[in-house]
Amino acid sequence: MIIELGHYALVLALATALIQAWLPILGARRGDRALMELGTSAALASFLLVAFSFAVLAFAYVTSDFSVKNVWENSHSLKPLIYKITGVWGNHEGSMLLWLLILVFFSALVALFGRSLPETLKATVLAVQAWIAAAFALFVLLTSNPFARLMPAPGEGKDLNPVLQDIGLAIHPPLLYLGYVGFSVCFSFAVAALIEGRIDAAWARWVRPWTLAAWIFLTAGIAMGSYWAYYELGWGGWWFWDPVENASFMPWLAGTALLHSALVMEKREALKIWTVLLALMTFSLSLLGTFLVRSGVLTSVHAFATDPTRGIFILAILVLFIGGAFSLFAIRASHLKAGGIFAPISREGALVLNNLILTTATATVLTGTLYPLVLEALTGDKISVGAPFFNMTFGLLMLPLLAAVPFGPLLAWKRGDLAGASQRLFAAAALGLLVAGSCYYAANGGPVLAPFGIGLGVYLIFGAVTDLVLRSGLGKVAFGVAWKRLSGLPRSAFGTALAHIGVGITLIGIVTVTAFETETVIEMKPGATVDAGRYSLRFDGMRQGRGPNYTEETGHFTVSRGGVTVTEISSSKRLYPARRMPTTEAGIRTFGLSQLYVSLGDATNGGGIVVRIWWKPLILCIWGGALVMMAGGIVSLSDRRLRVGAPSRARKSARFAVGAAE
Amino acid sequence: MIRVVLAVFLCIASAMPAFAVNPDEVLADPALEARARAISAELRCMVCQNQSIDDSNADLARDLRVLVRERLMNGDTDEAVIAYVVSRYGEFVLLKPRFEIKTMVLWGMPVILLIIGAATLIIAARRRGAPLAGAPLSDEEKEKLDKLLRS
Q1: Distance, CA of A427 to CA of B145 (rounded, Å)
Q2: Residue A482: inside a domain, yes or no?
Q3: Which of A220, A304, B11, B133 is the most buried (most CB within 10 A)?
Q4: pLDDT tens, A485-506?
Q5: In this predicted structure, what is the pLDDT of residue A516?
Q6: Are A525 and A556 members of one domain?
Q7: Chain A, 137-196: which have a CB under 8 Å from a chain B CB?
């Protein structure tokens, strides 16, 4: 019964979405306040209904109700509770329901926190959100119903794919979807601006926090997914340029560009039309990503053709929304007034360069991802586009961008002084070169490009610090004054610096791991030792074990350095009987920012086992940098400017007084 | 990312997981082995999804790795090895497609976009350039300004 209620709630959610989709916009046209306010209540109602529906599905999973087909296919009564819950979105139907839940969640947020928005804008935004929600609710109900029943109910479930029984799965998809779907708000704002034919700095001030929030979540989701694949796959890779990864990376790149262009728009009223276009593109890429992942078109064009209902449905949604939005843009963009002029060398100019390169990079990833599909469909020729292609093209595009990053914040708005900025960055650049030089010396004959990559990272970090130092006047004025100035800086300045420092840290991690990691593949018998990095590992032997729904063989290793035992590592291979599926659980130990990574292979005839050991120097910088970028986003999000009803001079002067007292 | 993990596991689900390069495949000469690894990273495992033969555990990938090493032992250059593999398995095996007519758009995209983007920006900047300087005041305006300043 409860299951049917969940199903029915979803149908009701579709109904409320349909109401929300046109009554508020009608109200906005007619100036009817009652109709416009209907949008707010409908958005909240939709959210509550979908949340209920989702809770029902979760309940079915927790209670192992195998009469529900979706639960039977993806769960098992012996599965630990946490994986019963995360299993809700570990499958197609459940994950689409999660997608919808997050979409209506964002609509509800706009409804709740959008009180100070102009009424007509808010009504239109909510209506556009509802178009998307209605389309996806229909998709779930018609093609991916998670509430379908089985008769008679089976006694035991088929279990969740063991690879997905991991805490990484609990966090990764919701974060990714919060990012993906968060951009829907920017999309709706852009469409609303086009419909109203009006756009101003207030609009940008509204769009920027949403973009930031979505961007923070997407950054977290991508980093999390990367780390999950790193430890779950058992072969030490952390980024594969797989089409599915690209599907999440493209909205991130476009979103990063949007973040920067919205800044120009808010501060200087320039780049309006471009910002609207970027907002449309970013969410379109999110939709495209959903299509690519959910339609099965990537595995093979043929897989897509055998069961086309879902694929065709999402393709229709894709065409409708992307096509519709861009047509609207073509018709209405000329109504938006362009404003704000600036010289090429200025902060605006730097941000335009950022946008140019990021958009090109997005397009490059897009072309590379879709090219094999399109080429095969058009000519029948099969080609592959993989990591070597992306590393080369994307890497080359990133170099000038990264070199330019520290200049951006140092240039003045409207008209900047390039020579002056270069002079001020001299210290950071020199430091970068110095570190590059010493790396080269240390590696002596090692890869030549790597030290310069690391140097570029150091330059990024200190370039960002330079900006803060210069703004505070540290070293030129008394320390107290500098401290006061520093604490008086807007939080967004710190956000920028942190985010750019994060980029530098990630870059250092990537370059170091790529260039200096060591890999040893060796057959080991108990008692054998092998060196990895500065450590040596002794193989102590295998042990059998048993978990709640799997059996495992674990290899034990003792790690020592200079003859002194430091720690132990155990690495295992598991077998999940329900699906007859093996997995590897790599043994990972962290030393500072570096890691030792041990993975087991086949047993050999002589009683030994094949072991693969990596020393991964500074690998944690890759994800640590992402965390710092996120922290930058969060700090920037907390900027007074972005908080509603912010200005309060009294508090600011109080803060200055405190700063002086210190 | 889930798909990546799944795809990789699908690729090996049939057999127990081993991993890509096994000790018995490794060449004695480190320089030759390094070349073999570099070549392997550029070649696609045909039965997997988006994996190089260096990363893949599939049998076919193993056969190809051994083949690459055999050719290297016979004294082939890197290019010759790749050309040989392509002649047997087709261009599908290359993870970095060659620059040809059919891949022109693929390789050209970044360059074309950068050029178009830069050109658009320059044209836009030129168009805006004029008002940035500002038109000189007319006599009438000068008079007004003088009045304002004097008052």
Answers
A1: 47
A2: yes
A3: A220
A4: 888 888 888 999 999 999 999 9
A5: 85
A6: yes
A7: 161, 163-164, 169, 172-173, 176
